[in-house]
Amino acid sequence: MNQQIAITEKGLTTKLEMSLERIKTFEPRGGYYLAFSGGKDSITCYHLLKMAGVKFDAHYNNTTVDPPELIRFIRKQYPDVEWNNPEKTMWKLIEEHLMPPTRVVRYCCKDLKEGGGTGRFAVTGVRWAESARRKNTRVGVEFDVMGSKSKAANKNRQIFLNSDNDEKRRLIETCQIKGKHVLNPIIDWEDWEVWEFIKSNNIPYPELYDQGFDRLGCIGCPLQGPKGMERDFKKWPRYRKKYISAFEKMIKARKERSMADKSFKKTDWETGEEVMEWYIHGGE
Q1: How far apart are CA 233 and CA 231, in angstroms?
Q2: Cross-strand partners of 58
Q3: Burial 249-280 (b: 16+ CB within 10 A, else e)
C-alpha cells in the first residue's frame, strides 16, 4: 500500500493523523497485538499500524462460524495473520452449555472471540459509530491520548471486558481479567471515514460488504436480530443444518441431565427445528 495516503477530506485527514499519533504514542516495547477479524475496521487498523511504522503481530480468532467468504479473504489477502483455533467449536459449546447462545447469554463471544493477547497491548477496531448510543458520548474524545494526569483522563482509565460493547468504550482500556491493555485507535471514526480510507488506498475488502452486509461476524449471531439471522441462514443453509444438528445434541444432553438431576428443568424442545425457531424469534 502507498504510504502517502490520498485523502482529500479535511476531517478524515485530521482523524487519520490523530489515530497515527495514538498508535505511535502508546507503542509497547514488544509490539502491539492486533485483534484481526477481517472486517473493515480491523483492516483499517492493520494498515494504520503499517503506516505508523510500529511493530505488531495480527491474530484472527477462528470462531468456526464465520462466513466462508470472509475466511477465504483473510487467507488470500492477509497470509501473515496468525490463526488462533479454539479448543471447542461453536457446535460443541452449544451442546455443553445446554442452550443456544442468546443476546444476553453470550458464551460464544467469551470462548471463541476473546482469547489471546494475555499480557499484551492489544489493538481493536472498536468504534462509537457502530452504535447509535455510543455515537452520542463525548467521554472517549475527551481522553488525553498523551497520558495526561488530569482528572478527566484518569476518569477514563476504567476496566472493561472485550464483550462490553456499549457507548462507554474508551480509547484506552484495561482488562484486569485477561491482563492486557487495549487501544482503540479509530474509536471516533464514522463509517464513511473508514470506507474513504479503504477505497482511497485501494485496500481489498471482503465481497460480502458489496452484497449488502453492513457488519461481518458469526453466521446466525443473535445480536443482529431475527431478520439478520434469517438472511444468514438463507445465504448459508449448510450452517443452518449445523446449528440444528448441534441443537439436537443439546436436547439429548438436556434430557440426560434432567434424568440425572431432578432439580434441572426438563426441556420442552423435542427437535432441532423447534430450537431453531426459538433461537431466531424467541431468544433473549
Answers
A1: 6
A2: 34
A3: bbbebbeeeeeeeeeeeebebeebebbbeebb
Q: How confident is the model at residue 156 (pLDDT cuts 50, 70, 90)?
A: very low
Residue 25, C-beta contacts closer than 8 angstroms, at least 6 positions apart: 145, 146, 147
Burial of 209 (0-12, 13-18, 19+ CB in 10 A): middle
pTM above 0.90, yes or no: no
Residues 6+ apart with CB under 8 A from 235: none
Res. 235: pLDDT tops 60: yes
Q: Which helix (H) or strand (E) holds 57?
A: strand 56-61
d(CA 275, CA 284): 13
Poorest-pLDDT segment among 29-38, 191-200, 214-223, 258-267: 258-267
How big is the chain, counted in residues? 284
If pLDDT is split at 50, 70 and 90, which confidence band does 50 have?
A: very high
Q: Is 235 exposed, middle or buried (0-12, 13-18, 19+ CB in 10 A)?
A: middle
Would you say 100 and 250 are in contact if contact means Cβ atoms under 8 Å apart?
yes
Domains contained in the chain, CATH given: 10-211 (3.40.50.620), 235-281 (no CATH)
- Give residue 4's pLDDT band: very low, low, confident or very high (50, 70, 90): very low
The set of residues, in sequence order, having a beta carbon less than 8 Å from that of 78 and lying 6+ positions away, is 36, 38, 46, 58
